[in-house]
Amino acid sequence: MQTQCPFCSVQCKITLHPPHSSPSPISVIQTGALATALSMEDWQAEGHPNAASQGRLCIKGMNAHQHALNGDRLLYPLIRRDGKLVRASWDEALDLIAARFREAMQQHGPDTIGVYGGGSLTNETAYLLGKFARIGLGTRYIDYNGRFCMSAAASAGTKVFGVDRGLTFRLQDIPLAQCIILAGTNIAECQPTLLPYFHEARANGARIIVLDPRQTGTAAIADLHLQLKPGTDALLALTLLKLIIDNGWTDQAFIAQHTNGYHELAALLDGIELEQTAQQCGIPAAQIVQAAEWYGTAETGMILTARGIEQQTDGHLAVRYLLNLVLATGKIGRPGCGYGAVTGQANGQGGREHGQKADQLPGYRSIENESDRAHVASVWGVEPSEIPGKGVSAYEMLELADQGLLRMLFVMGSNPVVSNPNIPLVRRALEGLDLLVVADLFLSETARMADIVLPVASFLENTGTLTNLEGRVLLREAVMEPPGEARQDWSILHAIAERLGTGHYFHFNSAEAIFNELRLASRGGLADYSGITYDRLRQEEGIYWPCPDESHAGTPTMFQQRFAHEDGKAIFTALPHQYVREQPSTTRPLLLTNGRVLSHYLTGVQTRRSPTLAARELQNFVEIHPATAKRYRLKEGQWAELQSAQGQFIVRCRLSEQIRMDTLFVSMHWGGKQNVNEATPPELDPFCKMPGFKFTPVTIRSWQPERSLLK
Ligand SMILES: Nc1nc2c(c(=O)[nH]1)N[C@H]1C(S)=C(S)[C@@H](COP(=O)(O)OP(=O)(O)OC[C@H]3O[C@@H](n4cnc5c(=O)[nH]c(N)nc54)[C@H](O)[C@@H]3O)O[C@H]1N2
Ligand SMILES: Nc1nc2c(c(=O)[nH]1)N[C@H]1C(S)=C(S)[C@@H](COP(=O)(O)OP(=O)(O)OC[C@H]3O[C@@H](n4cnc5c(=O)[nH]c(N)nc54)[C@H](O)[C@@H]3O)O[C@H]1N2
Ligand code: SF4
Ligand SMILES: [Mo]
Hints:
N-terminal domain of TfIIb; Dimethylsulfoxide Reductase, domain 2; 28 strands; binds iron/sulfur cluster
């Protein structure tokens, strides 16, 4: 069986072999996944040749089938009765959802219902979810978990280049770069199958510079590791630019021909001092000079960013300041050059293009632009005025719920009570809703709080397209029937709309039919999919957007001739640095950052149901420098409580010399008492509404289980 990994944005292809003792693949299709659940560890997965990962698979892809085959899968709808979630029929569940939604619409208006999507959903489902919110329900309130993931880099790319596509280059061109800056990206654990591209670049003589407060597996391949203090990337980027300009390493011909705003940079850089930056970033000045020289003087070069630099309340500006380096040195639009936002989720790229974001319509169109609205309205068969206006970001929807303004929430493909910042507020907001509906594979932490839970098909059971971090659209076809009564996400949207009298907008009999409408809706937009068909995707190895017609080969490298702004030029960023964040103090002297480990995925709902992956990391931990641990009298393996202004959580200590002494690192993969987001502050980046996940002043102390039991 051929499938595609459901986890990260590389989207490696997988060949899956059922156990020899089990029925043939054909009868597996007929009996569904559950029949084989007990033998899930006997299934074998191997990498299938594909251009993105060149046939490689990482440990997560190798074991992804295990959660899909797990006996924990939701098999039928659940409705909360007398405080308990109990089995219900689909008709009961759908009728109840429709009745409650109708009630809210009539009594308080459709804007009291929110829709919350996710970057694991296929393009088809993400597209339909946006349409469902706007036309099926008539609410302006829809957003998705990608807000926590891609919003800083995506909004920066749009401002600077006129369009955001994760990588502006092909993965296979990485070895052509002579200098690569990896800023807050841990490719070794988060996109492991891409690491060989960087090894190859090094073998070709490239210099790799890593910006990370920890000595990660990615930093281990670096020629220069700037082990900076969390949250200081923006200042570092400004200083690198100043050094590049002062030393004349700029490409004046490129600047004159392809950019606007260069001369406004002088004021921005006025007052930037190398020594001061070195001190604030906590790294030697010589390293900053070395980085500037290597990138500034290299013939070709790439800059890649991920959540370490982006999940900050100044993440948008930090990325834009790095893009200043790309433009000033003319390193984009030619082989071995470019910028890459290392996209996170399986469909983190497509999921941000087709309308599940508060301000966006399909094809990367804007919900505030009259001609964009008119185009999409014509495809949907409605008047432009029937499409509601812009809503608010994911966390802000929960704030509205907390204020009682949003009364019902429909969640498809996310686990917000674990992944949002400021969990104390989020928990209260979800508890206070009149109705919480969750469509998921499992009884996640959020599903456990729901009034109605709907079981959905997994990656092995649904067909659809996903767009990888390169902007390459890929087709993933179902290889099994869903277990029990689980349904396709998109068919659930249709069934609810049908009961609300808007079913005719959602009448599709296949994912392909939805894709064909998405193609029309995206036609002429920035992310134009209109030339891509399922037939082409089956024949070709995926197609890069934009692809405006069926004879178009797709666009592997962006900006070869021009940028996407009207005049074809990119824009330098001269906006002054600004951010809102609490600084460390005597009460909270340590800086908490967080992120991922190799074997788990996001909130762990899926990877904890894969025995092979779960066994690799059983509990959450805090990575702490031995000197810091000593100061706080903490030992390896001991429980510790971390406390911020927002809240606290408990994890085990893991002593490591590979982290800065002023910094702590916790993984984000656990909910409940081990959830790092209990402590994450609520402030958002003013430009893109990204939370400051990676910067929380905390204090730490040892924690004894007995003491809490006595309380
Ligand atoms: N194994 C695994 N892989 C995944 C995922 C997963 O959950 N597990 N999730 C996927 C998703 S959705 C995403 S978004 C990506 C995320 O991919 P990444 O962004 O690469 O992952 P993170 O571990 O969150 O953060 C990357 C690094 O940023 C560093 N960092 C922390 N604070 C700062 C800072 O202030 N400045 C700098 N320069 N660095 C800092 C951390 O130490 C960490 O090593 O991974 C994808 N791949
Ligand atoms: N502290 C901290 N917090 C973070 C981050 C961080 O680095 N640090 N990273 C942020 C980032 S980058 C991200 S992407 C978010 C992710 O945050 P979440 O969206 O909460 O993460 P997931 O664990 O992927 O939750 C997805 C849910 O959807 C279900 N699911 C999977 N596939 C499907 C499907 O096809 N259909 C449906 N209906 N359900 C499906 C899964 O079972 C799971 O319950 O977390 C953010 N939160
Ligand atoms: S998690 Fe990412 S790198 Fe690993 S197999 Fe899946 S898609 Fe490939
Ligand atoms: Mo993400």
